[in-house]
Design a protein that fits this description.
Blueprint lengths: L1 H6 L4 H8 L3 H9 L6 H11 L3 H10 L8
Protein name: HTH cro/C1-type domain-containing protein
GO molecular function, one term: DNA binding
Pfam families: HTH_3
């Protein structure tokens, strides 16, 4: 998500403004401290003006095949 945000030319604060939330929320999501659900993924993608499937594919590629919940 960090790469997508930066590619969109946004700071954490600017993205938070678009999302109408605190910058700390964006920081927690980017650090992996806060997981997001599919609806939040769609909202984040729209705020960064990217396709949600692109973000999902990047997340899938960064997750180990044997990752456990």
């Amino acid at each position: 998500m960090v790469a997508a945000r930066k590619a969109a030319g946004l700071t954490q604060e600017q993205l938070a403004d678009r999302l109408k939330c605190h910058q700390s929320f964006v920081a927690r999501v980017e650090s992996g401290e806060r997981r997001i659900d599919v609806i939040e993924l769609i909202v984040l993608a729209r705020a960064m003006e990217v396709d949600a499937s692109t973000l999902l594919a990047k997340a899938e590629g960064a997750t180990d095949a044997d990752h456990r919940i």
